[in-house]
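Notes from hallway chat w/ T.B., transcribed later so I don't forget. T.B. wanted the structure written out for a chain they're using in a teaching module, and asked if we could keep both sequence and structure tokens in one place. Agreed to drop them here.
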Amino acid sequence: MTRRYLPPHDLLAAIKKLLAFKTSAKAVEVLGQIVDALYQGRPYESIALYLAGGDEMIRQCFRGEAAAHSFALNMGNMSAMVPLKLSTRIIGILEIQGTHGNPISPQDHVMLKQISAMLARYLSTHQGKLLLRKARAKSHAVQAEIQPHKVPQSVRPQKRRAAAGEHSAP
């Protein structure tokens, strides 16, 4: 089955409609619909949307080839990534791979920057903020699993003495 691609202005209009539609759908579902629209509407091999979770980006949804679940903010090939920014803060990244290693066209880069601006505005709404909080919480939970809790040095001798039945002098 061959995909039928949309001109960039038609795809922009469809995404604006998705973002403007007031619905009870969860923010992650709306983002998934936008990624679907991009994947179906343009000749991309894969597309992924990541949200900032502290110092790393956490994948929210993707279509096409499997994308990394998360990555550090200072890593990655930025040529196929379009940042989602609120003021100067990067709150997410739209990662796009063209078909068969073809680079993204200049026309698509312009369209993707417009879409990233629309997504950033959406993520500044109540539903979007909840999704960003969840991404941060998920990142913190993963970091807590990776880094074991350390007992402060000052507590360790007291625990050893208490275990040995010794008491510290007041």
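Follow-up for T.B.: Residues 75-79, 149-157 have pLDDT under 50 and may be disordered. Might be a good example for the class.
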